[in-house]
Amino acid sequence: MRTKITQDVQEHFLFPSALFADQAPHRVQTILGSCVAVCLYDTRQGWGGINHYMMPWWNGEGIPSPKYGDVSMELLLKKMESFGSYKSDLVAKVFGGANQHFQKTSLLDIGERNINTAITFLENQHIPIMGQSVGGTQGRKIVFFTGTGQVYMKLLNQIEIKNTGDE
């Protein structure tokens, strides 16, 4: 976890399998491939939180961690509620879930399952999705301003890896 202060807004880089929420305004950056990030913003209080998860569901073995979407979504919501947020004041934006293996199979498309985990959770909690950029084959870099709810996103160019050795 890396945090630094620039002018009036603190900066934070969010690593995979982590979440971040604070009442003070932050500029939070993360980079997504098949992972998903959900930005929650409290429209009444003016603060927000974000997660970055890698896998859709925890299988019940080992320690539940924010690596898993079902765990991460619940932890992020609880963190926002611990600050005084009510679900009725929250809005969401969803990003990521790229299919980076370029195969469309239900077993391998982690990105699609990650997207479905976020959307299903938000629908079940009656938290409206105000924006999204999900799926496709390109990664994304997002910057979330927790004090305003704004998110800036850039699609990342695909990098083709070629084997240049003898086979």
Short note summarizing the structure:
Helices cover 17% and strands 35% of the residues. The chain contains 2 helices and 10 strands.
What does this structure look like?
The structure is a single chain. The protein contains two helices and ten strands. With 167 residues, the chain is of the alpha+beta class. The strands form two sheets. It has a five-stranded mixed β-sheet with strand order 1-2-4-9-10, with no helix packed on it. Strands 3-6-5-7-8 form a five-stranded mixed β-sheet, with helices on one face. α1 packs parallel to α2. The longest helix is centred in the last third of the chain and has 15 residues. The termini are far apart.
Q: Secondary structure elements and their pairing?
A:
Blueprint: E1 2-6, E2 9-13, E3 18-22, E4 26-32, E5 36-42, E6 47-52, H1 69-82, E7 90-96, H2 110-124, E8 129-134, E9 140-145, E10 151-155
Parallel strand pairs: 2-4, 7-8
Antiparallel strand pairs: 1-2, 3-6, 4-9, 5-6, 5-7, 9-10
Helix pairs in contact: 1-2
